[in-house]
Predict the structure.
Amino acid sequence: MKERILAVVGAVALVTVAVVLRATVLDDGSDGGSGGGGGGRPHVACTPDLAGVCRALADAGAIAADPAVLELGDATAPPDDLDGWITWDGAPGVANIDAPGTWQDPVAVAGAPLAVARRTGPAPALPAGCTADALTWRCLVDAALDGDAVGVGTGTSAESLVRLGPIAAALVPADGDVTDIDAADLRAVIDSPADPQDLFPTQLVALRTRLGALTWLVGPEPALRAADDLVVLRPAGAAVPASVVLSATRSGRVGDLARRLQQGAPAEALRDAGVEPGAGRLAVDPGEQYAVRDEVG
């Protein structure tokens, strides 16, 4: 009987420890204190193009003040006090390939399909077999090869890897995988603008205000449609999602924050980034993104 009582006591203790650990790791902590699992508002970073989301969260008191900016290239060694990272689908997994276990299971908090935009006015000449009604991702590759400037980002940032994903997929041979793509064609798309590729918000301004800077721009459809003087097209085939995710560090406390983001806080900042709260889904293979980055890096 004594052994059975000790076993029950031990089981209760284990459950209690588990509950405490879960509260420490997943709660966003609305009481005082600091980050890193010690209570208080969580310390959360955003990728540069999503910095407005972090600022809005900090202003609302949902995360610690002065949120950090964290790009993919630095995500293998995040600051010690960081609890979470708001970035694009695939990025935490890409970082984990080089630094296993750095980022915990990402949660999709917002999203939108990718689309392509051009300026209003006469339509650019499209490659043979491509029309506005039958535009494909492969058409954008051929357009870049024909001299059009296609905005997709550098191919090394979190947001650019999402935008470049369907173009890279269009280059995968029928009997191959992403490691078999023609790196020269992929690089030709990235090198197609006269100016270096940049983050999506910057390229959206360039498309609208600088004649000749870009012919085509790939990005989240709502952000493109919200801009003036653009013609927006969704390439043929299944919609390609671009999702914003929240991922925790080993000691991160972001469970409640993820729920708040999915429910629309801060909705305006998320929509400014071109995504809809609660509409995201995890759809990217980080291994494929990693391979694409290697091809263009």
Remarks:
- The chain has two domains: 2-103+248-296, 112-241.
- Residues 1-38 have pLDDT under 50 and may be disordered.
- Residues 2-103+248-296 form one domain.
